[in-house]
Amino acid sequence: MELVDFNALDREAAEAALRPALDVPRWSDALVAGRPYAAVADLLDAARTAAHPLTDAELDRALSHHPMIGRRAEGDSAEATLSRGEQAGLGDADDAVRADLERANLEYQERFGHVFLIRAAGRSLPEILSEARRRLTNPPEDERREVAEQLRQIAVLRLEGMLA
């Protein structure tokens, strides 16, 4: 979709277009209300600003659309399609790295009560595993801030890709 097309959508269609990037109604409301945007960079700046801060309820809502890293997202939703594309770029890793990542994912879920979330774009599986291990040592309040930052990065990348 071109920026001019996004600017021209009715409110409901514009909110629906944004939902796969970040399913936080307050965020999409702010972006839709800010139209028209003169440039994609303006929309991306607005997206970063509107996603800061994210409340705990917004984090939980957004996290519900993300599969465990390293696992293929199921279904045909826009979110699942985007996730599969993002994780496809992770490349191959040996079985030991994949098994270690699976264990780290499960340990993370047990510790924090939700999936380990990280912007996969531009990262390798060994790098993601290293980050999972590091973040397992975070206090819960620090980890919530990291998760929110990862969600912002993912949302902006998805939005940028939608408008490319």
Automatic annotation (TrEMBL):
MF annotations from Gene Ontology: 2-oxo-4-hydroxy-4-carboxy-5-ureidoimidazoline decarboxylase activity
GO biological process, one term: urate catabolic process
Highest taxon listed in the record's lineage: Bacteria
Annotated stretches, region: Disordered: 71-91
Protein name per Swiss-Prot or TrEMBL: 2-oxo-4-hydroxy-4-carboxy-5-ureidoimidazoline decarboxylase
InterPro entries tied to this protein: OHCU_decarboxylase, OHCU_decarboxylase-2, OHCU_decarboxylase_sf
Enzyme Commission number(s) of this protein: 4.1.1.97
